[in-house]
Specification:
Largest interface: B-C, 62 and 59 residues
Strand content of chain A: under 5%
Number of helices of chain A: 13
Largest sheet of chain A: none
Radius of gyration of chain A: 20 Å
Helix content of chain B: 55-70%
Structural class of chain A: mainly alpha
Radius of gyration of chain B: 22 Å
Order of helices and strands of chain A: HHHHHHHHHHHHH
Largest sheet of chain B: 2 strands, antiparallel
CATH architecture of chain B: Orthogonal Bundle
Strand order of the largest sheet of chain B: 1-2
Structural class of chain B: mainly alpha
Distance between the termini of chain B: 14 Å
CATH topology of chain A: ABC transporter involved in vitamin B12 uptake, BtuC
Shape of chain A: globular
Shape of chain B: globular
Chains: A mainly alpha (306), B mainly alpha (364), C alpha/beta (382)
Number of strands of chain A: 0
Oligomer: heterotrimer
Chain lengths: 306, 364, 382
């Protein structure tokens, strides 16, 4: 029983990185911008956060610095894509490439260094409940923040005026522009906010999840976060579920091995990707459903009429 | 206040200058980085950018390294011109390597007698079929389910990687290889014929250049090619004119998958001479950058392939001769592409000073 | 559209052409002219330093495999000073690129080249054939030639010692092993670890997780966590980072350092580090070249030769276990490599070594079974 509780706990932690990054990308995409540079943003923030944590010993400063660094790179991406109307896919890929190389370069002196941060977190009282305590209440604060964030975003997008405007921009920027909204500024704000969240996710990876810096340590999590937004049909609650599912599958595969179950490991590892493809097909095959769910202007450049 | 204003017509001058400026920006960034590491910027730039051209052996390596990039980027250029966003060239490359390598492995393990020139066409066919088949999955899923090709092709890269891993650790593992994840070394006669004795560049380069020529002819001299390019930016107009989006999807994906697969097969059967999990060093993704830097034009793809190969080889030289960190290559590639994308904006826009002229209907 | 693209590519072509012309006309930097100095007394000219180069599969800062090799390289510099000039290339992919890097190093005048990963084997063999007067040394490979030597550490020796400690320290009788890829070297380590533990505690089991990578801290963390969740309280890994050790620290369990001294990373969890001293081998190899006594071989180094060791044993280890470790160490010094002594059964119960039998080099080199007590399988094609 304890094993199950531990497994749930580990799956939560593993999925949180994907969840936070995915929520950031969701904000981007709801505003109509697709940022393929998520992987690069996460790496830049991971190295920045680690460097600050190593230098100051403060976890909070590390998260702030990581988020700021990613937000900065995202802002450059936003400027290129929103004002200079550069191709969103190519620019995003360039950010990934640049972020990967830059973080490796800057991080050279941090490889093999140790952080002096507390390793264990537990909610007082709740953390000691026999089963649920181990499963749910012994996590890093960010895990709980991710849940709160998903709720916040749901409320924001569907219950506030600003959220409605952002969604409108994602559906039809021309209409929003005609109504007098400052489409480009709002899009930039979405890109920067989304970038900052990717930064938080990246910092979590290097400062809390595995307190180590190594080049390319995100190992494709940015790409999975991108797939998650589609998997979740751009809804925060579903994204959270998807993130824990993907995180869980990863840990499940390792747990089954540890239990001595013989599964062909490569096929188990393939399952998140095959699952994403399957979901993509299911939700895309119904054009009405897609129209209902996908921000219509996703990936398309916006030219304010002269 | 400075703002950007759309030009009445695209600027010819900027079309010429944009890649030059982008390269200049990259060189400047490189010089700053070298100086910040305490190295002589001039020497650093020489080793990085010019040394690869200074010896015949290194020129041959450039050719060898550029071959897969040219092949992959040609296919991607075709796709992007037609608004089909194939991001999965890496997966198609791997499947081509599996197909071509698998054939060479079969020949080796069954002792079939071949000679290099006789076997070469088989490698070409196998590689192209492998890559095209993988791309066909993307095309099918988009055709049937409207599944976004970016995400599907990307997810299939991971699947292809895991497939290769499974083969290497399982059914294709060399029985005498001490349990290491690799196939047998392919028989010497299966390898791709070399152009010069003693140098590694092989006739795959000729195939790549020929493919570039064919692609140019297709894009700019055939009706079908024109169809594809018009259909890209203006799908509604294209449909009105009777061009089929579906045809474009299948044509471009199969072609680009086939080209990427060729690259993979050449790499496995050529310089590597066996299949291992390391058959690709990210060629499929680097090719995306090459395609953009090369302006989606076949000749541009060739030149951009050479440029990025220079970065890669120069980066190695920089490590061993002036002790530069290996991460610099990625930084330069990223900076080059970002600068290029930024400069390209100035083809369509120009900088204007002065107050914003308010006209009816403008809000931002 | 066509003209624009043509102009564009002409511009790029012009740029390229100019760089080619420039590059071809500039071979190497001109050496500064030596000043003509009067020679008062005939002095023998100082010998050119021996140029030696290393190629690494990962980054030097990984605190693991590559880090240990680089320490070895620095040891060579410290010992030989002016007589040697070393350089290295890191992050070399184990594919077609490796051959180019090795040829480059030869072209730069290096007379001995060390390749520190199995995947460089084919490239080393090819280049060695073309340059018979350059010495090539390949770590953990199995192909040799007149100028290509193979060297390896008997990693399973310190793994055995770690096993003894693990067997003595475990409270749940469950050990955990985070393994990289299912090659004989790793299987030897898993078996040695388990056998060592069983020698002091016959009831132990070792749970096994494969991550199919040598170096992936987040995956190593998850694997370690999965093992701990399943009840393992002492872990060993074959992977190159400190992640497993740090995960053990986080969960209040025990673990070991691997490849280098990792005691600083986990003050409470660290029980000992399995260490590699590559400088012992590298200084010998350089010495062979300088003394002109180099010859090809398949060299194996273990505790006896000082090539590896088990160090920094934690104060938490009780005295009787320490003694057992010392005894085992002495036995291995007197009988190098004799970790696998029968009777040993594999997982299916079949006896692979009878009582009194010792595994020979062939059996060790081709090891493809796991001993009884290991819970986990070797990934196969099924």
């Amino acid at each position: 029983m304890n094993e199950l509780a531990s497994f749930i706990g580990t799956a939560f932690a593993s999925g949180t990185v994907l969840a936070v990054a995915g929520l950031g990308l969701l904000i981007n995409e709801r505003a109509g911008v697709i940022n393929l540079g998520a992987e690069g943003l996460m790496l830049v923030s991971a190295v920045t956060g680690f460097a600050v944590a190593a230098g100051t010993g403060s976890s909070w400063l590390a998260f702030a610095a990581g988020a700021a660094a990613a937000a900065l790179v995202a802002a450059c991406f936003g400027w290129l894509v929103i004002w200079l109307n550069a191709n969103q896919y190519a620019t995003g890929l360039a950010v990934t490439l640049f972020g990967t190389g830059f973080s490796a370069f800057v991080g050279v002196s941090y490889v093999g260094r140790k952080l002096d941060l507390p390793l264990n977190h537990s909610v007082p009282v709740l953390g000691d409940i026999p089963f649920l305590g181990v499963a749910l209440f012994r996590q890093h604060p960010l895990v709980y923040l991710a849940l709160a964030l998903a709720l916040l975003l749901s409320w924001f997008f569907w219950r506030t005026r600003t959220g409605l405007i952002v969604r409108a921009i994602g559906e039809s920027p021309d209409s929003a522009h005609a109504l007098g909204y400052r489409v480009r500024l709002i899009r930039l704000a979405a890109v920067v906010a989304g970038g900052a969240l990717c930064g938080v996710a990246g910092t979590f990876l290097s400062v809390a999840y595995t307190p180590l810096w190594v080049e390319r340590m995100t190992a494709g999590r940015g790409w999975i976060a991108l797939a998650l937004t589609v998997f979740a049909t751009w809804r925060p609650g579903r994204l959270l579920l998807g993130a824990y599912l993907f995180g869980g599958v990863n840990v499940l595969q390792l747990t089954l091995q540890a239990q001595g179950v013989q599964i062909p490991a490569p096929f188990m590892s393939m399952s998140p990707y095959l699952a994403t493809i399957a979901v993509l097909c299911i939700i895309s095959s119904n054009p009405a459903w897609i129209r209902l769910n996908m921000p219509a202007s996703l990936g398309r450049p916006f030219f304010p009429s002269q | 206040m400075i703002r950007l204003e759309a030009r009445p017509a695209p600027s010819r001058l900027m079309v010429l200058l944009s890649p030059v400026i982008a390269l200049a920006v990259t060189v400047a960034v490189a010089a700053i980085l070298f100086a910040s590491l305490g190295k002589d910027p001039a020497r650093g730039l020489y080793v990085f950018l010019l040394k690869p051209f200074s010896e015949v052996r290194l020129l041959s390596e450039l050719g060898l390294k550029a071959t897969p990039l040219i092949l992959c980027s040609l296919g991607l250029a075709l796709c992007y011109r037609s608004n089909v966003w194939n991001i999965g060239a890496e997966g198609q490359f791997l499947l081509g390597a599996i197909a071509g390598g698998g054939l060479a492995m079969w020949v080796t393990m069954n002792g079939v007698a071949v000679n290099r020139w006789g076997f070469f066409p088989f490698v070409v066919v196998a590689g192209a079929l492998g890559g095209a088949a993988w791309a066909a999955v993307v095309a099918f899923l988009k055709d049937r389910f409207h599944a976004n090709e970016i995400l599907v092709s990307l997810m299939l890269v991971y699947v292809a990687n895991l497939l290769l891993t499974w083969l290497m650790f399982g059914p294709w593992k060399d029985p005498k290889g001490w349990n290491f994840p690799q196939t047998v070394s392919f028989a010497a006669d299966t390898t791709i014929p070399r152009v010069f004795r003693g140098l590694r560049v092989n006739w795959g380069l000729a195939v790549a250049l020929a493919a570039a020529g064919l692609m140019w002819a297709f894009l700019f001299r055939t009706f079908r090619g024109l169809q594809l390019q018009v259909g890209g930016p203006a799908p509604a107009a294209a449909r009105y004119a009777g061009f089929s989006a579906r045809g474009a999807l299948w044509t471009t994906l199969l072609a680009s998958g086939g080209l990427a697969g060729l690259a993979g097969a050449f790499e496995a059967v050529g310089p590597m001479g066996q299949l291992t999990p390391h058959v690709s060093t990210g060629y499929g993704f680097t090719a995306i950058i090459v395609a953009f830097v090369g302006r989606l034009h076949p000749l541009g793809c060739i030149l951009a392939s050479v440029l990025l190969s220079t970065f890669l080889i120069g980066g190695e030289q920089a490590q061993s001769t002036i002790q530069m960190p290996s991460a610099l290559t990625g930084v330069f590639q990223g900076v080059l592409l970002l600068a290029m994308l930024a400069c390209d904006a100035f083809i369509l826009f120009r900088v204007r000073r002065g107050a914003v002229a308010l006209r009816a209907g403008r809000a931002s | 559209m066509t003209t624009r693209s043509l102009l564009n590519t002409l511009a790029a072509g012009a740029l390229l052409a100019s760089t080619v012309l420039f590059g071809c006309s500039k071979k190497e930097e001109p050496k500064p002219e030596p000043a003509a100095a009067p020679a008062p007394a005939p002095e023998p000219p100082k010998p050119e330093p021996l140029k030696a180069a290393w190629i690494y599969v990962g980054p030097v800062g990984d605190a693991g495999w590559t880090f240990a090799h680089d320490l070895g390289r620095k040891g060579v510099e410290a010992k030989f000073g002016d007589k040697v000039k070393t350089s290295y290339v890191e992050n070399v992919p184990e594919g077609a690129d490796a051959e180019r890097v090795i040829r480059d190093l030869v072209a730069q005048g290096n007379k001995i080249i060390f390749a520190t990963s199995f995947g460089f084997m084919d490239s080393m063999v090819k280049v060695a054939k073309d340059f018979p007067d350059v010495y090539f040394e390949h770590a953990t490979g199995y192909q040799t030639s007149p100028n290509l030597r193979v060297y390896e550490g008997r990693f399973y020796e310190p793994a055995y010692l770690a096993g003894i400690v693990a067997g003595g320290m475990t409270k749940t009788n469950t050990l955990g092993f985070v393994a990289s890829v299912p090659i004989p070297e790793v299987l030897r380590n898993i078996n040695a670890f388990t056998l060592g533990a069983q020698s002091v505690n016959p009831k132990v089991k070792t749970k096994l997780v494969w991550i199919n990578a040598w170096f992936d801290p987040p995956k190593e963390t998850e694997a370690a966590q999965a093992l701990i969740n399943q009840g393992a309280d002492v872990l060993l890994q074959n992977t190159d980072s400190t992640a497993v050790l740090q995960t053990a620290e986080k969960n209040g369990k025990y673990a070991f350092g691997w490849d280098s001294d990792m005691s600083a990373f986990a003050p409470k969890a660290h029980l000992g580090s399995c260490l590699l001293h590559w400088d012992v081998y590298y200084t010998k190899a350089i010495g062979d070249v300088l003394d002109k006594t180099w010859k090809t071989d398949m060299v194996k180094l273990g505790i006896k030769e000082g090539g590896n060791d088990f160090v920094k044993m934690s104060d938490a280890i009780p005295e009787n276990i320490r003694k057992k470790v010392e005894e085992a160490k002495q036995y291995l010094i007197d009988h190098p490599g004799e970790v696998y002594r029968g009777p040993i059964k594999d997982q299916s119960g079949k006896e692979v070594l009878a009582k009194g039998q010792v595994a020979d080099e062939k059996m060790k080199a081709e090891m493809n079974f796991l001993v009884k007590g290991v819970e986990g399988k070797i990934p196969t094609s099924k």
